[in-house]
Design goal:
The chain is built from ten helices and 16 strands. The chain has 346 residues and is of the alpha/beta class. The strands form four sheets. The protein has a seven-stranded mixed beta sheet with strand order 6-5-4-7-10-15-16. Strands 11-8-9-14 form a four-stranded mixed beta sheet, with helices on one face. The longest helix is centred in the middle third of the chain and has 34 residues. 38% of the residues lie in helices and 18% in strands. Helix 6 links the parallel strand 4 and strand 5. It has two domains: 119 residues, Up-down Bundle (Four Helix Bundle (Hemerythrin (Met), subunit A)), CATH 1.20.120; 202 residues, Rossmann fold, CATH 3.40.50.
Amino acid sequence: MVVAIEWVRNPRPHIRLIDQTVLPGAVQYLEITTVTDLVAAIQSLAVRGAPALGAAGALGVVVAMNQGEQEGWDEAELQRNVDLVRDARPTAVNLAWGVNEVRHAIPEGADRVLELAQRVVDEDGAANRELSRLGADWILDATGREQVRVVTHCNTGALATTAWGTAYGIIHELHERGRLGLVYADETRPLLQGSRLTSWELTQDGIDHVIQADGAAASTILRGLVDVAIIGADRITANGDTANKVGSVTLALACERAGIPFVVAAPYSTVDAGTATGEDIHIEERAALEVLELGGVRTAPATARAFNPAFDVTPHDLISAIVTEQGVVVPARSGGGALFADLVNQ
């Protein structure tokens, strides 16, 4: 299985990332030894996906500590650089979560922070396996089908995590059980994470699939060609609203009309209990050229402007189930109130 992010010790301790901006044309690695390089990798989407960003945040604190020791930073400069990592992408809660999981241990030294960061990495892989099992069980029960046809949006596999995957992990779990039919992978405009990354992973895993234009997804659902939509999340609010790659809410609306399940899968660390509803989520807007160009070639008139939100919010009442490693919850039952407070005790 592909390893999107890892800590390596030789020739010097650093983060090694698969550069996802050049997939599927090439498999290249970035060797991250400075905060500047890590922030650039995060913002360019060389590393992306909520769980992988959590790992990048945690390991990024070690990078900052090592760089600070070499360059003679004082405590204030170190903390400023840790904040640069934490704030590199504002919508994805796991990035800040990963930083916050380890930064309290900075006074104990880099070895202790690395130990905690590695725990973040290891626990994510275990969480992904468990949520995939739970999600597959729920979907098979909800659909009652022997072979489940799936539509998914963006990329939620090993490339977006530390191992296995979230929404993609459920797809993979269904495949291993012999219960997966055809997968429809949305291309995911404007940066094509679905056609470049999800299709690459599906191909590597030998899973039958087709790529479709984002604009085809609603029709695919309404025509009865799929049995369930499964997506990931970059942030889940207290009431069960979810932020995910822009285009996700279109699938949710179509699923409601078609009467099929719309499932969100993410590690429990993606739950932001401090944010009440999706209206409070800051939506990252990315560079206009991502929309106005394709492969570096201008496709729009020279004077055209672009609106390029990276995420949209799906209201909780459009979501059939949210799957984390802690369990499965049904957001509609919350009535818009707090949803996750007691999940870990269920």
